[in-house]
Input
Amino acid sequence: VDPNVLYVDNGQFLTSAGAAAALDMCLHMIRNDHGSAVAAHAARMSVMPLEREGGQAQFIIHDQPPVPSGTTMEPLLAWLEENAERELTLEDIAAHAGMSTRTLNRRFRDQTGT
Output
């Protein structure tokens, strides 16, 4: 996963994030398989630019989700934010919260909506 590009083509797999990036990737595939003229025609038919290359950075703003206040997850979410640079496993997080991974998953989903 590379959040700084529209799509990734490593020769075996193609991946993209978002609808517009998927269309960019489709035009890339058409260009590779059928040439630039066919890709340009497909772009015109789709009313989209052909020239956005896969290396262009995404313009996505990632808003911080609201921290649910007054829940059992509030202290854990604060701890996670303070320890964001650490490589924490789900087991590490559950142990810090004093609950099983299953309970952590259920409470996290219930209280954060994710």
Observations:
- Residues 19-34 form the longest helix (16 residues).
- The two ends are 20 Å apart (CA to CA).
